[in-house]
Amino acid sequence: MSEFFSTYNSQIINSLIVFGIFFVIQLIARLIVRLIGNSKKIHVGRAKLVGRYVTITFLFLTVLIEAFILGVRVSDIALVFSSVFAVIGIALFAIWSILSNVTSGIIMFFSFPYKIGDKIKIHDKDHEIEAIIEDIRSFQIHLREDNGNLVTYPNNLLLQKAVTLIEKDAFESIHNGSNDSI
User: Fold this and answer.
1) 59 vs 177: CA distance, rounded Å
2) Rounded Cα gap, residues 158 and 136, in angstroms
3) 88 φ, ψ to 5°?
4) How many CB atoms lie within 10 A of CB 136?
5) Nearest-CA neighbor of 159 among 119, 95, 110?
6) What separation, in Å, do the N-terminal and C-terminal C-alpha atoms of the chain show?
7) Burial class of 7 by CB neighbour count within 10 A (0 to 12, 13 to 18, 19+)
8) Which of 76, 92, 168, 171 has its CA 20 to 30 A from that of 16?
9) Which residues pair with 123 in a beta bridge?
10) What does pTM read for this prediction?
């Protein structure tokens, strides 16, 4: 056992340093995401979801760096990645809209000007939707129309359509008993 540690001493130390740096960076990144979420008054669940995406991205990069530390050659990594990406690419081509919606959900976290409780109007040429934002999820946004119908609208389409803010915090005014709509 001591022979193992003496043989791979530098790799073990480098690995511990990389994982320590990963831990610190992902904590800082999640803190930044949480601060951005709080400053924009974004729902805590959405901030946690984006924090998970950030952690997975940093973990992927850490595993890649760790492979180099352990002596894996670039040609070996290129072979594995090209094979994996070929299979994933074919599979993801079939579900590209799901990835588009997840990406749109992340973009909406950082730059969407509306929040849960706002009443919005989506200007779609086929069907205009006027509703209150009830929830913003990874794939879609849940909207509650005045007649009580729940509409789920894909995130990627929401970023492509014109949206008008009708009333800020309409959800609050409905639950507090005053139904003053503009």
Assistant:
1) 47
2) 11
3) -65, -40
4) 23
5) 110
6) 74
7) exposed
8) 76
9) 162
10) 0.55
Q: Is 69 helix (H, G, I), strand (E, B) or coil?
A: helix
Which residues on adjacent β-strands are paired with residue 154?
Answer: 140
Could you give the count of Cα atoms lying within 13 Å of 43 in the half-sphere of its Cβ? 18
CB 103 within 8 A of CB 53: no
> What residue spans of the chain are helical by DSSP H?
2-7, 9-39, 44-69, 74-94, 96-111, 155-160, 170-175
DSSP 112-140: ----TT-EEEEE-SS--EEEEEEEE-SSE
Q: What is the pLDDT of residues 27-75, one digit of tens each?
A: 999 899 889 888 888 888 888 888 888 899 999 899 988 888 888 888 8
Alpha-carbon dihedral 147, 152, 153, 154, rounded to 10 degrees:
180
CA-atom Rg of the chain in angstroms? 23
Q: Which residues pair with 153 in a beta bridge?
A: 141
The residues near 113 (Cβ < 8 Å, ≥ 6 apart) are: 165
Q: What is the amino acid identity at position 33? A: V
> Which two three-digit tokens encode residue 133?
């934002």
3-state secondary structure of 35: helix
